[in-house]
Write a structure and sequence with these properties.
Blueprint: E1 2-6, H1 8-17, E2 19-22, E3 33-38, E4 50-61, H2 66-71, E5 77-86, H3 95-99, E6 112-114, H4 117-126, H5 128-134
Parallel strand pairs: 1-3
Antiparallel strand pairs: 1-6, 2-5, 3-4, 4-5
């Protein structure tokens, strides 16, 4: 499981097109779960930064400048989603709601970050009703 930092102004497009653009080629494998987390400044009322889940369908180069078409800026890679789910507002959460103080290690400016195994299991328990729609 990975955590992806996304700006609020890009979030709807991520859900609509099923792609998340990054500048580093992260070792995200097909079928891995990706949490869509708003950057801190885009959640000033602390409503919960995790807003959605993607299932990875791979990482490819943005050879045809689709990121420029969508956002007016260039990213090097696109993380493709085989499935994507928008969480209901009542289910938004922050990683520290589940992991506690250890969640701080995931609050960095890095675009994507892998969650440690035990932390990923705790998040999966929180998202079980959504994950049954992904893992069929």
């Amino acid at each position: 499981m990975w955590r992806l930092n996304v700006r609020r102004m890009y979030l709807n497009n991520v859900f609509d097109v099923g792609k998340f653009f990054v500048n580093r080629r992260f070792n995200i494998q097909h079928g891995e779960l990706l949490l869509l987390q708003l950057v801190k400044k885009d959640d000033p009322r602390h409503l919960g930064r995790i807003r959605g889940i993607m299932e990875s369908d791979g990482v490819v180069e943005d050879e045809h400048d689709e990121s420029v078409e969508l956002y007016g800026r260039k990213w090097k890679y696109s993380i493709l989603a085989s499935r994507i789910i928008r969480l209901q507002p009542r289910d938004w959460f922050d990683l520290d709601d589940i992991i506690g103080i250890n969640a701080r290690k995931y609050y960095t400016q890095v675009e994507a970050m892998r969650l440690e195994h035990d932390d990923a299991l705790a998040v999966e328990r929180r998202l079980v009703r959504y994950l049954k729609h992904i893992k069929q």
